[in-house]
Specification:
Order of helices and strands: EHEEEHEEEHHE
Radius of gyration: 15 Å
Structural class: alpha+beta
CATH architecture: 2-Layer Sandwich
Shape: globular
Number of strands: 8
Number of helices: 4
CATH class: Alpha Beta
Largest sheet: 6 strands, antiparallel
Strand content: 25-35%
Helix content: 25-40%
CATH topology: Alpha-Beta Plaits
Distance between the termini: 36 Å
Bound molecules: 7,8-dihydro-7,7-dimethyl-6-hydroxypterin
Number of domains: 1
């Protein structure tokens, strides 16, 4: 199996979001045939969608993996379940959301999985941490990440330190 790079968007806004994000980074590094190569900063962001829910903590992970996209998706969904994820309502609060954003420069469209992630081009809480990891990223549709970011208002995003980090990095 070939070695691929995959980028995962992490989000949480209930039941101790920081802790869910930190645990998720550790769990991603322990997935079979997978290593977490890079962690972005953590960001606090206003909810996109229904506004009557807590702010989110968002981040992005860069994985090196020998899993296929669908095998990786299975693993991500299992992790979400382990974090007690319950989908109460569409675009409602969640304990842990793990979105497969990009898989190499592939474009996939299957009933279970669309890559690149369908909404990532419009979401500052995805693009800002992703651009931290890959500043010169070009998406499979040819758009550069800095061009996409230039079209977005990202003023609601606030870089935050991970819980338990005492000194700024
Ligand atoms: N809004 C923010 N800020 N961050 C998220 O991770 C997030 N995830 C979602 C919805 C509910 C669309 N809004 C979000 O799934």
């Amino acid at each position: 199996m070939t070695l691929s790079l995959a980028w995962i968007g992490l989000g949480s806004n209930i039941d101790g979001p920081h802790e869910h994000i930190e645990r998720a980074f550790r769990a991603l590094d322990q997935l079979p045939l997978t290593r977490c190569q890079q962690q972005s900063s953590r960001y606090r962001s206003r909810p996109v969608g229904p506004a009557d829910q807590p702010d989110f903590v968002n981040a992005v992970a860069q994985l090196e993996t020998r899993l296929s996209p669908l095998a990786l998706l299975d693993q991500l969904q299992a992790l979400e379940q382990q974090h007690g994820r319950v989908r109460q309502r569409h675009w409602g609060p969640r304990t842990l959301d793990l979105d497969l954003l990009l898989f190499d420069d592939r474009q996939l469209s299957t009933p279970r999985l669309t890559v690149p992630h369908a909404h990532m081009h419009q979401r500052g809480f995805v693009l800002i941490p992703l651009a931290e990891l890959v500043p010169d990223l070009r998406l499979p549709n040819g758009k550069r990440i800095d061009e996409l970011l230039a079209t977005l208002d990202t003023s609601d995003l606030q870089r935050v330190l991970p819980k338990n980090t005492l000194t700024p990095q």
